[in-house]
Give the backbone structure.
Amino acid sequence: MAELTKQEKIEKIEALKEKRRRLLKKRPQYTPNEGQRPVHSSKMRNRFVFSANGAGKTTMAVQEAVWAAKGFNPITEEYYKVPASVIVVLDRPDKVKDVWLPEMKKWHNIEDKWLFKNGLTYINEIKFPNGSSIRFMFHQMDQMAFESIEVDFVIFDEPCPRRIYIALRRGGRKKSGLGRYLLIGTPIAAPWLRTEVYDRWIQGKLPDTECFRTDISVNLQNLAEGYLESFGSTLTENEKKVRLAGEFFDSAGLALAHLFKRSTHTISKLQFERQWNPAHPVVLAIDPHPSKKHVAVLLGLGENGQLYYIKELAEKLIAKDFAEKLRAWYNGYRVIDIVVDSLGSADYTGGDGFKSFIQVLRENGVRARATTFKDKNDEDFIERIRGSLKSPEKPQPFTLYRPKLVIVEGNEGIIKDIENVGWMTYKDIEANKPKLDIRQHDYLACLKYALAANINGAVSGHRKHRVNGRKKLYGF
């Protein structure tokens, strides 16, 4: 260029501009489909797209990344602050070269001189002329790599491990709360996204978040002819729900969620107080643990056979202190039976020498008994809990369409357990056992014992005890 005349330099620059204009003219123009447009239009800081395969999710993510780096969203005509620090989280490095860069260059001018490896064997950063950067990070990276990073925008292409999401969210908070987040993927992993994000968003508990569900039909115009039929023919019915409809992979294994609605199965504390009579019988069920919190629940029987899940307790205490806590907790209720998981009858579980947990409870005024084999029968429990949660098709006397079991508001432990409990599965075959997997659902375990107990106080062989001279009855 130094040897060229001024006129030749001008002609050279104009030729380069014309070449670029022709390249841009050949480049296709991005037009979002009906599933992509609402995502691009959303002003929420946190957006989650649970998408089927073939719904155009990577194309959508690429557009969002480049728009953030350039500082302009052409859909909303909104300008962003630049230079911007953009992070894209992928499951593995080869996706940069094989998926992201081809998709970027299809729609945008991404020059090779903007690409950097930073001493690695693969491209991990794009530096734009305006100072913005897109940095690629991967699931297998050390946890500390995700910590203490200040970010303007993070895109997760496919669900990531929860630890990575939490670490990068901390980086957004360091930007005075201005960081934006977009997670796009087929929900075949990371069940925490359903329990901690989607379910909470549905409940109205995440005001700065918007979730989207898209199926493959929104992108049919961009799929090869016969793709849907060919791809779908290889999938099981459950896999079709995930990969073609964008449903969560673990939803098919949920055992009780389809029977439960918060609006139907919960009542306010004021409603409960108006309906409850102190003379009504109550069962106390306890699930003790040697290393984590003991859990206890109160289940009451009201008019017309209505069951009330009244309250729940979780405390990590030795048996003696837990007994004292319990006595104050159930004070004022007519407790007719106190049942404890039979593991609490084992020696050395009471935190006082060889004594059992149940023995220590009894010595401290809590007249508890151990569960029986019948109390713990799984098939009976399934029948009881499903029957209790099922909403009647016709109004019941004085209860409208209320199910047999209602939960007093504030008992989030049992609600979460009911919404998330699944079936036990066989190890070697894709099938469920006729047994609920309550190993990590302690509130539901307590409810299991409470539903099996003698809440009517009519089973022969049950003795009754008066405690402290008051008219409270305890089954033993």
